[in-house]
Write a structure and sequence with these properties.
The complex is a heterodimer of chains A (453) and B (287). Chain A is mostly helical. Chain A is built from 17 helices and four strands. In chain A, helix 5 crosses helix 12. The two termini of chain B are 21 Å apart.
Chain lengths: 453, 287
């Protein structure tokens, strides 16, 4: 009998070499594999990979809408001509190509150089806002999804199927429709949210999507730095340093809260009290004049539209978590619950000791997908708040869309143009942010995925 | 909680909770329905069944969906072609690729999987710039104004998730079944068609569902590619209906159109619902 090597069924990272079969069978296996992959590979090559490569070049130039016209040749020849021309200025007339600017676009975005020409563009603030918005949303998605899944999992509940079918609706509704309905609902005068509030006797003329001043500006942490330093970048650093060490903890025990508070206070002292004097002295030592205090607080990141869009997104997102949690719950054997009730465990103890560990393997991939989907949730932000009052609720993807389709920037030597080169650089920065987040969620999920049923 | 019956008091509490959640979940939907039947064309219906409720908005929208010379039937046809096409192609191309990644070892497997994971995290705006420029310079004449172009682009964007999901699911199907078939003389193609596919129906349903939804509700790419009115899709018209200011949008017609656009999606969701839970369950859950 020919040796059929079992290639290990759950191949997370499998062998990258061809298995030990006789030569003609080996070639046939490889050929079959390639044949199976070929259609997918071709489609993705044309639509995704080649444009990605092209975009690398785009991001290193000052491409704008002036370059869209191809004077010489059409199609591929004109395209390649532009690429060549960007390195060889002599050819630029001929191909109407852009100039090569190296990493200038990236530097401008990361160093906040664009905020002078593009209103509301503060890269680090947008990034921090995006992260916080995602974290808040995913938290509620999971909590609500799991809780309601458990509610619907109770044996003997009447109309269970009906509820399950109905609760799917937010997920099933097309995102565009849902977003526009919610925008209507947040209208200050007769949107249903305010109407209901008035009906309950509460003040009902909140301008959810339009109010510029955030309600809780006193929310710590506070950052005080000299005016030349980017305060939002410092706030980003603060949050990073605050959360970083705790992402790797496996268990949340009592000292956790105390450690967290102590760490928070230490960071606040550094960033809030010491940062300004220290940095100002440094600047003076380097010959620059003493600058005034620029301060930001975390509360400034949360205008009212944050809460409005978060509410809408939570409404949209929890059915997905509920569906996954239902699947997970149904795979937990009932004997465990029986045993725990015999041992006299309370509901809360049962939840933490049995339900959570056994639900984790199912929820972790869902949380990863959910995090990515929420992070890139274009529909909700764009159609409900439009980026918020004065661009305060922009997230990375809406900003990227804005750069391509909506804004013109006054570029040096070109006038007011659509900055496709800058947009391409921004797209790559977003890509790297997403890659970093994926890596981090991978690490965290591997650290928490410790239970094998 | 292994009991056969829940005591009545507790049952009523649970029912109250469920009803509360139901109201919160359904409320925006009811809002849209109220908007659609309200003859006053207002964005703010005051009650669920407004006085003088009529289906006039539906009739108007069906007769003349937009200012462009396109009929409702054409719109539905275009959207259906796009949705079903994307769904089918995603299933076919995605499943074969997922099968290869899951079952075969070949040079470039690791690199390929890495590439798919990378693309999985990329939002569509990641390539929007490049696609826009390429469209206007190179690809323009051929793929512009073609639903095929939009369909291919949509397939490309739903493939990564499809492959990832299908591969996770196929990984959980024991190899012994295919090995038994191979011993009996089946070729890999036959093993794929007769063993793998029937077993993967839940995951196929989920992939097809997502592909269908993506194709049906897509408007960003269609808006940029398609300018011939006869090839427009429902979502494009819906998106185009919102005027610049709240007062210029025909709200009743907008709501009617929104219902027409949402209905097939919700129906497909309901029918494939029982597959959703099992089709999304990745390796760790299946016992």
């Amino acid at each position: 009998m020919a040796s059929t090597t079992t290639h290990g069924s759950h191949s997370a990272g499998g062998a990258d070499s061809v298995p030990a079969l006789p030569k003609h069978r080996r070639a046939s296996v490889v050929r079959t594999a390639y044949a199976y992959i070929l259609p997918a590979a071709i489609v993705m090559l044309i639509i995704t990979f080649l444009p990605l490569l092209y975009q690398v070049w785009l991001s290193l130039t000052n491409y704008s809408n002036l370059n869209l016209r191809l004077p010489t040749g059409s199609g591929i020849e004109g395209l390649l001509g532009q690429i060549v021309a960007s390195f060889n200025p002599a050819l630029q007339e001929r191909y109407n190509g852009p100039s090569f600017v190296g990493l200038a676009n990236y530097a401008r975005i990361l160093g906040n150089g664009l905020s002078a020409v593009l209103s509301g563009f503060e890269f680090w603030r947008i990034l921090l806002f995006n992260l916080l918005w995602t974290a808040v949303n995913v938290f509620f998605h999971v909590v609500l999804g799991v809780a309601i899944a458990m509610l619907l999992n109770v044996q003997g509940l009447w109309f269970k199927r009906f509820y399950r079918a109905m609760f799917i609706i937010p997920w099933a509704m097309p995102g565009l429709v849902a977003a526009m309905v919610w925008r209507n609902m947040f209208d200050p005068d007769s949107g249903s949210v305010n109407v209901i509030l008035r009906g309950l006797g509460l003040p009902g003329n909140t301008r959810w999507l339009l109010q510029v001043d955030p309600p809780f500006t006193w929310l710590p942490p506070f950052i005080r730095v000299p005016a030349g330093v980017n305060p939002w970048f410092m706030l980003f650093l603060f949050m990073l340093l605050l959360v970083g060490p705790f992402l790797y903890r496996r268990r949340l025990r009592q000292p956790f809260l105390r450690n967290f508070i102590v760490w928070f206070l230490i960071l606040e002292v550094i960033f809030g009290l010491l940062a300004y004097p220290v940095l100002d002295t440094l600047r003076q030592a380097m010959g620059r004049p003493s600058a005034a205090v620029a301060s930001v607080s975390l509360g400034q990141l949360f205008p009212l539209s944050f809460y409005a869009t978060a509410l809408a997104n939570i409404w949209l997102g929890w059915p997905f978590m509920m569906a996954v949690a239902t699947g997970g719950l149904q795979s937990i054997p009932h004997d465990l619950y029986e045993a725990s009730s015999i041992d006299g465990a309370t509901g809360w103890q049962t939840f933490w000791a049995i339900t959570v560990p056994l639900l984790r393997p199912a929820m972790v991939p869902a949380i990863m997908i959910g995090t990515m989907m929420t992070f890139n949730q274009f529909n909700v932000i764009y159609f409900i708040s439009g980026g918020g009052p004065l661009h305060s609720t922009e997230i990375l993807v809406t900003e990227a869309y804005r750069l391509v389709n909506e804004t013109t920037i006054n570029l040096v030597g070109l006038g007011n143009v659509r900055p496709y080169g800058v947009a391409a650089a921004f797209a790559y920065i977003v890509f790297f942010v997403l890659a970093a987040i994926t890596l981090i969620t991978n690490r965290v999920s591997r650290a928490t995925e410790s239970y094998n049923a | 909680m292994h009991r056969d019956k829940v005591p009545l008091a507790r049952q009523l509490v649970y029912q109250a909770l469920c009803l509360l959640i139901l109201v919160i979940v359904i409320f925006p939907v009811l809002w849209v329905v109220a908007m659609a039947v309200d003859p006053r064309n207002t964005a703010r219906p005051t009650s669920l069944i407004p006085p003088g409720a009529s289906l006039q908005a539906f009739r108007t929208v069906i007769a003349k969906p937009s200012a462009n010379p396109v009929s409702m039937l054409e719109l539905i046809r275009n959207s259906a072609i796009l949705a079903v096409g994307v769904s089918l192609f995603t299933i076919i191309i995605g499943t074969t690729a997922a099968y290869a990644f899951s079952r075969f070892s070949f040079p470039g497997r690791q690199a390929g999987m890495l590439a798919f994971v990378i693309v999985l995290m990329l939002p569509s705006v990641g390539t929007l710039t490049a696609l826009f420029v390429l469209l206007n310079t190179v690809i323009g004449p051929t793929l512009r104004n073609s639903i095929v172009g939009v369909g291919i682009a949509m397939t490309a964007s739903s493939l990564p998730f499809a492959i990832w999901n299908m591969k996770g699911y196929i990984d959980t199907i024991p190899r012994e079944l295919e090995e038994a078939a191979t011993i009996d003389g089946a070729s890999p193609n036959q093993a794929f068609r007769f063993i793998m596919l029937p077993l993967s129906v839940p995951a196929l349903a989920v992939t097809g569902l997502f592909g269908f939804i993506a194709g049906w509700t897509e408007f960003v790419l269609s808006w940029q590619f398609i300018s011939d009115p006869h090839w427009m899709t429902l979502s494009m018209i819906l998106y185009g209906m919102q005027g610049q200011y709240a007062s210029s949008t025909p709200w009743s017609q907008f709501a009617a159109m929104a219902i027409i656009v949402s209905l097939p999606v919700i129906l497909v969701f309901f029918f494939l619902q029982r597959y959703l839970v099992s089709g999304l369950a990745l390796g760790a859950v299946k016992g």
